[in-house]
Design brief:
By secondary structure, the chain is of the alpha/beta class. Helix content is 40%, strand content 18%. Strand 9, helix 11 and strand 10 form a beta-alpha-beta unit. Helix 10 (236-256) crosses helix 11 and helix 17 runs antiparallel to helix 18 (447-462). The N and C termini lie far apart (51 Å).
Length: 466
Amino acid sequence: MVSLPSISYSITVRLEAPASGNAVSRLTTAVEQAGGIVTALDVTASGQSRLSIDVTCAASDTAHAQQITAALAAVEGVRIGKVSDRTFLMHLGGKIEVTSKVPIRNRDDLSMIYTPGVARICLAIAENPEDARRLTIKRNMVAVVTDGSAVLGLGNLGALAALPVMEGKAALFKRFAGIDAFPICLDTQDVDEIVRAVELIAPVFAGINLEDISAPRCFEIERRLREKLDIPVFHDDQHGTAIVVLAALTNALKVVGKRLEDVRIVMSGAGAAGMAILTVLLASGAKHVVVADKDGIVHRSRPGLGPELVWLTDNTNEQGLVGTLRDALAGAEVFIGVSAPNILTGDDIATMAPGSIVFALANPVPEVDPVVASEYAAVVASGRSDFPNQINNVLAFPGVFRGLIDAHSRTVTVQTLIAAAHALAAVVSDEERNASYIVPSVFHPDVAGAVAAAVSSAVRSTEPAR
């Protein structure tokens, strides 16, 4: 798939050019001929013979940005000054900060915020620990925890390189659900140490969001933390993805006039996201699911199956299919990929049943080019923002945690995930729903509130009152 210019590779080139009538057009032409897109052009200073101009443009990658800069430099009379990568500029000094909610103007304020007045608050919490939710940041604070072992689609980068992602996650919590979140990047990939570290910091938080932890360790970490903690533990790579996939599939099936319990679903990928998606699909009524991984279709007689895949064989592939992903895809109504790039072609999608649904969610390069898939499938979704129907976890996790926190939840259940998915799907009305609009925009004003309300209701109906 050819990479298109993207705002994530946006650069601003400060340059000087002759103050001639066609100076600006020569600059924009140079960028366009180099394959870039000019998104802004600002004259920052002007003289009788020279102009100082900031040219902002989108490139497809770092090398392409350098090519665009070179093309501008080649324009007659142009002198290149500073070249700024706008994405890097946005991250300078980090993306979040801690600020005081109350003024500290004088000695009276100081004596209430800190000593001696704060002692009364400490004693109240010691007497009644539940007061911590009312009187401290625990009321609205989530820990975004990672070990850096599976950062985005980049792999095992370690704790420090994972920090920009966790910062971004914290910023999204605040922007979309008003939740204060803090990045916790642990410099260990030992399961016991991770569990113990999170257990020790848990008193500060109302919930734990696990992020970018590789499978299968993430399963054990999540399970053990849920056993130890009395606050919800949510692994966004699993549960957030599962929620948005179920919501999108709910609406996609309505578009093509089919029912979840009737369609044959083929999944590619049996990692963290794949297992969570499978769990919510089965709990929602899916009956005919086949899963393939890098070794082909998962079936009962396949040697070397780990515990998770053994569970999978007990709950999928009732026909006992064997072979490759392509073998499984023939005649299927739904494909859901959470695996690897470019493993399917348009010819493979053409073998699916009429009115098929394709969710190619490997990121940034999907399992099949969405443009090619749309030639054969009725509904296509991906994880990319430059195609319709982006399966984006931001649609789920802010509202989910808002609901969990508001309801003082202790855990996360499958019923809660399904409730969130149904609420998210319902944000898209019957009048709005079509093949290119099966999930709302992440900026839709109703998303977080609808998901939060559904989650709180589910918690209150399944958990004892706190």
